Known about the structure:
The structure holds two protein chains of two kinds.
Chain A: E1 21-26, H1 32-41, E2 46-50, H2 65-70, E3 86-89, E4 97-98, H3 132-136, H4 151-166, H5 191-202, E5 207-209, H6 248-254, E6 258-262, E7 265-268, E8 279-283, E9 289-299, H7 305-312, E10 337-344, E11 357-361, E12 377-382, H8 387-393, H9 404-413, E13 417-424, E14 433-441, E15 447-452, H10 457-476, E16 481-484, E17 523-525, H11 540-559
Chain B: H1 8-15, H2 17-30, H3 33-47, H4 56-69, H5 83-92, H6 99-116, H7 143-153, H8 157-171, H9 183-188, H10 202-208
Amino acid sequence: xxxxxAPGRHGGVRYQRRQEVDFVIVGSGSAGGILARxxxxxxxxxxxxxxxxxxxxxxxxxxxxFATMVKxxxxxxxxxxxxxxxxxxxxxxxVAAKATGGPVANYARTVGGSSAxxxxxxxxxxxxxxxxxxxxxxxxxxxxxxxxxxxxxLEPYYTKVDWEIGVSGEPGPFDPPRSRPYPLPPLxxxxxxxxxxxxxxxxxxxxxxxxxxxxxxxYNGRRRCYHCGFCLGFGCEFGxxxxxxxxxxxxxxxxxxxxxxTGATACRVPTDDDGRVTGVAYFDSDGREHLQRARAVVLxxxxxxTSRLLLMSESSRFPHGxxxxxxxxxxxxxxxxxxxxxxxxDEPLNEFKSVQVTRIAMDFYETDPERxxxxxxxIDGRWIDFPVTFGLGGLPPDAPRWGARYKRMLGEYFNYxxxxxxxxxxxPVASNNVTLDPTHKDVYGRPGIRITYRDHDDDLAxxxxxxxxxxxxxxxxGARRVWKQPxxxxxSTAHLLGTCRMGDDPAASVVDRYHRAHDVPNLFxxxxxxxxxxxRGQPTMTIMALAFRAGEHIARFASQGDx
Amino acid sequence: xxxxxxxxxxxxxxxxxxxxxxGGAWLALQAPVFRAAALQAREAAASGSxxxxxxxxxxxxxxxxxxxxxxxxxxxxxxxxGIGRFIDQAFASFRAPDLPxxxxxxxxxxxxxxxxxxxxxxxxxxxxxPGGNNAPLFSELSQQRQDDLLSRIEGSxxxxxxxxxxxxxxxxxxxxxxxxxxxxxxxxxxxxRHTWVPPFGAYDGETEGG
Lengths: 563, 210
């Protein structure tokens, strides 16, 4: 597996592996990239272990949707399932099957992590998301719980994300309180956004500009979006996408105290006789194992990788995996629900241009007991297909799939179609989880990630409800034809949430409110795994806000000698 | 040396020379196996070099199927876009494990052709030997008969494999070898540029007053 270890543009420091640094961070994504900057700016020495490559703006190929969406082995940012197999099953009674068509847990293996290829929908949580269990009561059979922190405690860090990472938008009628306005105006509306507004207004809904982690204007030395149209699943060739790749990681390297070590695949977090972690063991790209020693370890590898690493780090002292006395490492996995309706219009929309989403509606965000099930979410007007994926499955389900009529319809639909995509809650269920696959191993001999998942019935009901509302918006917008995509239990996700949840009770959570593992005083975990509830389908901004907050607290602990 | 992706120049023009230097070196460093194989498809087609995985018979038959999946109509189709070479390269690289299944599928399709042969075309076929060697090849049948036979195998693993390869090859980047002269993108109406300015479509055009 050829991996190159390109040095950082800002010439980050290089540490000797035997040299003990203050922090090793596993993962350079939305959380790890921010923690790297916060801790190195605070004066600490930091090594970030990133299993992927160091790709920069000029390394991302414009509209290579074949590689990006169809997952060709060598080009996909998400890596190779041959090198690192994943398995899936719907219940713990089944033998998990090896994924072949694409990853089950879909994340980018590259510096910046999935913030390099995300769509950029940056929704804050609302106050209710942090205390929904108290508001609605218990939901039997689930681990539905409040967060140990409230929205007010996270608000300053959401604002840091807005201003330091770069978010374009304007407030909507249901937005939570904010202490500063958006730093950047919304991106220009697309035809899908205009039609979305028209349909929503006709139904009495409240469309608003989509808050996007994509620059509408030049900002902080970065170039604005030039509307190339390839965000979802693609790296940004202009650096306009507000990834940690283009923001906090160069700043971390510029301190001279942070090394981004690529091609470094973590395989174990060893502990000493006192039960403290001593660093992180990893394989380099040649398959040689090394140990990077550190005073403290931060895991920000995402809800699947972080869980795998903890479960692989079992020992006589931690027989069920590191930091797992609660038994909750890997448990309560939440995908977020998603569904869609599509429509074709009379005039060209040309949705292949510019960012994926420009308008959203939050009218169905809250759980409404009248509906008879838990859940809520947002809907957006967007474009989700590219030439290859549109050819494979973009037409209505009753359309021909080959032949002259198929070919003609491709031309009649490609520039005239839009999608109404919904983003919804998932309930935390213990039987939805990440475990180590007993059979399939990666090229280094690590057990593959095994995902066990079946959407809760309320989650499926929420998906259907939101999809049907989306279809109504499309009808009200004057679509020539609307069709609903079927809602089925999900078998893959890009959202890996809840698997090391935070909480005050060590028996019911993995980390405390400051992201410190209850069981290990110098181990911190901060990524999507920290989330107690699922959000309404757009978790990345919250993961970044949690990372800013965690960075502040961890730096304080380290300064006080409390790590 | 030839551009690696045919798009690099426009991106380099935009990003500026400094960044381009590093990017070009980086691309050269990582040059993956698949990419190299795909690029060879174009060069192989241009130079008439030998096929990488298929026999010339298999090439002809698979190309004939692809040419009915995305046919030439008033505009060019998959065959004209170079799909045969794309499929050949795919079976030589990232879809190599599927080549035996493809060969089985071709044999089964040909058996269907032979079984249907007694229906009477083309003239000269040996109607006394419905399963035999004198049946016409699939690629020799009329388009109507080809379509009839493909309708019978639609949904089979073999058909879906060929459809997948045909669609992917026709609409992927031309540098992969199967979307030559952007024939696939012109079928869709996809316009290949790196930057756009609003208005993007007819509806936001109305809003913008344009």
